[in-house]
Amino acid sequence: MKMEIKEQIIVLVKSKKSKTINIKEIRENLNLEYTPQNEKILKNEIEKLVQERYIEPQKTSKTNVEGISEKYKIIKQDDANIKQEIINLSNKLKIDYYLKNTKEYQKDKEIINSISKFISKPIEGVLTINERSYQIFQNEKLLKEREDIIKKLGLTLQDLKCYETYEPFFYYENKEFSKGKILIIENKDTFWTIQNVVKTTKYKNIYLVIYGEGKKILKSFEFINNFKLENNIIEYFGDIDYEGINIYEQLKSKYSQYNIKAYKTGYQKILDIEKNPNKIRANQICNLKNNEEFLKEFDKDYQKKLQYIFENKLYIPQEVFNASIAEKIMKGE
Q: Which pairs count as long-range contacts for 17-20, CB under 8 Å and 24+ apart, including other chains?
């Protein structure tokens, strides 16, 4: 009798053109009298069909006293097979996202299955992200390129026992003065100028001079973890233009735990020297919020100078701060 009920429901489900079926339709089709005993039988058969991925309860549907939902979503059998594949993945993975997005699963199936197979076994050692990627996929770049899949599966790099590596920044270390200031310099020439002056003058107030290399510093600053800092003051010095200010403000925001400030001595000096700034040469994105935050670090006189530069799309390159100026400042402080 149970098999008959189940088969009849399957026939009904397959014949439906709509995407849903309600329990009242099923009862009427089975010509099943509403009794407690019949409801138990019906519930058992319904649960089997849910388990076999023919139907699934609609989330918004109410349930009766026997625990039977009033309405069910009909699962296409192709979709049901795919969902069963997803259910069979490692229990260490979160599968909710892909159960709702089966087309995306099909597209990324090979990658997902490789991850499932890998994480099902004990993971030995801690590797870099590229090393682990090659181990899993025989492709050293794939794990980094498809981190979105890792997140959708509810995993982190820590779960895969791997970590990202960052290209280190170039730096000069004034080892005798480890409590001194740390200066991050946007451009190459000014980095060489300042680090040479620090070396030759034996300037005591600077511990590290870091070459920011433009936007690269937004990632490479992670390398600072390799130094034992002692609440060092960290300051940034770059071009006075939209891009230079954007780099500084992004760096300051991303690494807020370091309380990075503008190197006011440098910025103010080039503002004093350059009376007729040139127009910005290339198209640069003006971020008004970043400009406003930057202005707050200066007194009113310098705020006016900076505001004039921003409003008129002018710029002052960091290279105005040359070797003779750097030497005078560092000898005078």
A: 18/74, 19/73, 19/74, 20/58, 20/71, 20/72, 20/73, 20/74
